[in-house]
Amino acid sequence: MSDSKPQTLVEESDAKIGTTGHDWDGIKELNNPLPRWWLWTFYATIVWGVIYTVLYPAWPLVNGATAGVFGWSTRGEVAAEQAAFAQRNTPLANALAAADLPQVAADTSGELHRYAVSSGAAVFRTHCSQCHGSGAAGAIGYPNLLDSDWLWGGSVSDIAMTVRHGIRNDTDGDARWSQMPAFGEILSNAEIDAVVEHVREISDQEHDIALAATGAEVFASNCASCHGDAGEGMRDEGAPDLSDAIWLYGGDRDALHTTVNQARFGVMPAWGARLSDAEVAAVATYVHQLGGGEAEIEKVHP
Amino acid sequence: MFPRRVSGRFRQLKWAIMAVTLGIYYLTPWIRWDRGPNLPDQAVLIDLAQRRFYFFFIEIWPHEFYFVAGLLIMAGLGLFLFTSALGRVWCGYTCPQTVWVDLFILVERWIEGDRNARIRLWRQSWDIHKWRLRLTKWLVWLLIAAATGGAWVFYFADAPTLAGQLATFQAPAVAYTSIGVLVATTFVFGGFMREQVCNYMCPWPRIQAAMMDDGTITVAYRDWRGEPRGKHRKGAKAAAASRIATAYAAPESAADAVVQQGDCIDCMACVNVCPAGIDIRDGQQMECITCALCIDACDDMMDRVGQPRGLIGYLALTDETKERAGEPPVPMLRHVLRPRTIVYTVLWSLIGVGLVVALLMRSDIDMTVAPVRNPTYVLEPDGSVRNIYDVRLRNMSNVPRDFSLSLTSDAALNLSLQGEDASTVSVPANEILLQRVYVTAAPGSSAATGDHTDLTLMVEDFAAGTSASVATTFNGRVSQ
Ligand code: SF4
Ligand code: SF4
Questions:
Q1: pLDDT tens for residues A215-250?
Q2: Can you give the pLDDT at residue B238?
């Protein structure tokens, strides 16, 4: 290859546009001007940047950032949007708070029902899912809200009552309250083992027949007053049905032994203090329609 | 680029195609189609808000989008087919870019004159005359661009209503934005970028090279006839002929004489009319859109100098050797019917037939089933096991209908609907109903204690006698 051509190229360009003065082993950096459109775009972005930082929040300061003369912020925009939605939902929320809840729950195609279910689902996800799970299936110690087993009743007004006042909390005088004694201080270990066998018998689980017979006597004198003669439970007391398949703390021998020995003490906050009436009504309606909701029983609720 | 005006049969064909394609584009949204009450009576409508696509008697719901996918595949295969058979016919005749550029050039020529006048104007300094011509041209272009963008939005809303809204500045912002973007792109692409869009922005020129082979028909220059080119002089040919005659008499100078002059008179007509700005005499090039304008231009020239037409013409590369040897070319049809094109045609037709069959067989009742997996099952106090399914029932007809749900399974399972006492729900016309469905297995049954049990959910409309079914599974207590 001849080396004359590249040289003339460099020399020509040198003459016309010069170099930046940088020179590495004879390789020079030419000082090519930027295309004009590029420069103008660049200047325009600078101008744009300056205008932008004046109008909108931009420069970080010690406690926050410059606010911008428009006073605009993403947070404010979200707040405004939320307020707008709340505003739009106000009539429905008011209607729901004033409505007869059992009626709303029963009218599954009604507008209030649909509003209650969808806004109740949002309330549930925000406040309830931490304990009861996002699918409302609960966990050990936290009731499953999908089934039809209820400690304190599964009608929509029962559920609303539970949500509003909570369970065994110290903050609400009307909280649902019940307490099982820790039978470890009352019964011997052998008696507890026997009563566990009896409970497994009445709940159709594998059990020791002889022990269960002993346990039946223990049960009759110690447990039946709350859980019923057949262990069928008592809702007014929040005493669980021991004859069914559902166990809040587990139905195996260890779990049952611990329950009898120490007693359990589950607590639920009183949501009436934190949620509006409409929100309580909504979340109760939502939980009621999850699959276990019961019809209203004719009795007077506070 | 200053393409010169040209007339001829291909130019005529192009005008005709332009009229037809533009006509279809602008008029389609205005065709009415009576679908009954509460439904849009526009024949072709993409209803994004309601998520429906109407195409004459066909109504496509979002879950039937495979129809659209199928049509797109057919369009792609069709493009392959035409490209492998006839080269870039799509580009040359029907591509929107070509059509609108043609239209814009027509306006340009009408206002600023033909090629030479336009070049002169372009070189000239910006005086009032130039400003006047330029502004008029831009104005007409803008009007065309506005009409283009305007027509586009009519595909997405009821055309007469939207037209009224647009005129009174009440149309949704998105309509104005769409129009704005389309006006800008039409104006810039059609008016200023033209062939550069094809060369730099469009991927097709590069892809099409793979679709073409030696048998593909393209626009080509018969260099064996035209070369060596030379300026046309009256009698030059005759002189050449006499030289040839002399050459036969004196064979030693024959080679010299015979190659004296070809048919190309180097008039540059083919180059001047080319919207892609290339010289077809250099051979087939990527930029060429096979628009055949150079054929028209050269045929015109050949007519004038009294030579046979076809110095530039549609031909396949495989014909070249034959033509050089003076044999007749293979008939067009033989070129078009090659194994490759036949395969494309068969594929294309298969998909087409498949779509038509699917269209005819689809029912106006449809269901999708989403088993709720959070939790996988629910244990009831009596030991029975319940599974929850979110079922979407679609009533794709114009009347409300009662849908009855049932299930079939080898195991004994029970079905019930949330919030309903019976197993029948009413679904409003043209709506999707989300219904929670409970399936329960009795305590101790195989489904309740087992792992997975197959079941089929079925939805029926007894009145219309139509049904749909979906297979799913039931989770027992073993599954986690
Ligand atoms: S070379 Fe001929 S066919 Fe190709 S783009 Fe130019 S005018 Fe059209
Ligand atoms: S138009 Fe025909 S004759 Fe004129 S330069 Fe082109 S090929 Fe040659």
A1: 999 999 999 999 999 999 999 889 999 999 899 999
A2: 55
Is the C-alpha dihedral spanning B212, B216, B219, B225 positive or negative? Answer: positive
Give the helix/strand (H/E) hosting B92. none
The answer to whether B216 touches B84, Cβ cutoff 8 Å, is yes
- Residue of A146, A148, A289 lying closest to B419 (CB–CB): A289
Instruction: Give, to the nearest 10 degrees, the angle between helix B66-86 and helix B204-211.
Output: 70
| pLDDT value, residue A55 | 93
Q: Is A286 exposed, middle or buried (0-12, 13-18, 19+ CB in 10 A)?
A: buried
- Least Cα separation, residue B398 to chain A (angstroms): 21
Over 60: is that where the pLDDT of B95 sits?
A: yes
- Alpha-carbon gap: A245 to the closest alpha carbon of chain B (Å): 5
- CA-B294 nearest atom, ligand 2: 1
Contact flag B382-A245 (C-beta cutoff 8 Å) = yes
pLDDT of residue A163: 96
Q: What residues of chain A lie within 8 A of the CB of B375, using their CB?
A: 133, 135, 137, 144, 146
CB pair distance less than 8 Å for B379 and A147: yes
> Chain A within 8 Å of B347 (Cβ-Cβ)?
no
With a 6 Å cutoff on the Cβ, whether B355 touches ligand 2 is no
Share of chain A above pLDDT 70, in %: 93
Show Cβ contacts of residue A25 under 8 Å, excluding neighbours closer than 6 positions. none
Residue A149 to residue B374, Cβ atoms within 8 A: no
- Closest-CA distance of chain B to residue A147, Å: 5
Distance between the two ends of chain A, CA-based, in angstroms?
103
Query: Nearest ligand to the C-alpha of residue B273?
Result: 1
Q: Do B383 and A204 touch (CB under 8 A)?
A: yes
Percent of chain A with pLDDT over 90: 73
Average pLDDT value over all residues in chain A: 89
Beta-strand relationship, B424-427 and B452-461: unpaired
pTM: 0.66
What one-character DSSP code corresponds to residue B42? B
Global ipTM: 0.76
